[in-house]
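SEQUENCE-TO-STRUCTURE ENTRY
===========================

Backbone structure tokens: a row of integers, each naming the local backbone shape at its residue.

Task: work out the structure tokens from the sequence, keeping to the layout shown below.
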Amino acid sequence: MTSGRDAGESSLDVLDEFGFEAAAIVLGPEGERARRGDVGRIRPWRSVTKVLTGLGATIALQEGRVDLEDPAGPPGSTLRHLLAHASGYFYESESTLQAPGLRRHYSNYGIDEAARHVERALGRDFGGWIQERVADPLGMRGLDWTGSPSVGAHGALTDLALLAAELLRPTLLEERWWAEMTGVQLPELVGIMPGFGKQTPNPFGLGIEVRGEKTPHWTGAGNSPATVGHFGMLGTAFWVDPTADLALVIGTSHDFCDAHRTVMPRLADAVLAEHA
């Protein structure tokens, strides 16, 4: 696939359009293909942390430590509901908006409660589980896991690239469980996609967003519906497109804003045009 860009230009030149500091790494199945900017800078991952939590929970599922149908959260809710933002919890409160399974209501509290459920089942600290079963095997040596399992991680883009590479070519999950994590849970649910309004439907996997047919969206028009990933409100994001066999990791020095809404889709399409 040709990029249509002049010789010597890179799709990552689109980073200049942000108007503030930004960096990125492009990954293929063989590893890193391109990078630009300060990819070693420690950045707050915010909601990208949810993908680490989803992966750690899915490893526990794979080992039979927990089950997706375990009662967890408010009455009638299960671990599946919590990890897929369908428990009915408010954004950051144990109060509920509606019964479980009726709507996709994005909830930091729900992800934190999912981690607490897994932690109780394991009989150990969830952060230690993430370090031992995810960070150490993937070589994420700079990951700083502090605070909330929904928003607490900090790290460099080089560490986030290791997570993206794992989702592109899984080594920690068997195929069945990779498909469970990255597939759509409760596919019919409608909901608000933070920063992008109501989506009908609004697909999510286990702690990870699934692109589906969402519009508008922070990935590109060329990204496949099977694309998964997450963005954080402090400017860090990544996506993995299994159809294009490509991943992109992004970090900026600015809180999520209109520039992210406009530049990230253009960046994604430029990367797909050059590398897919």
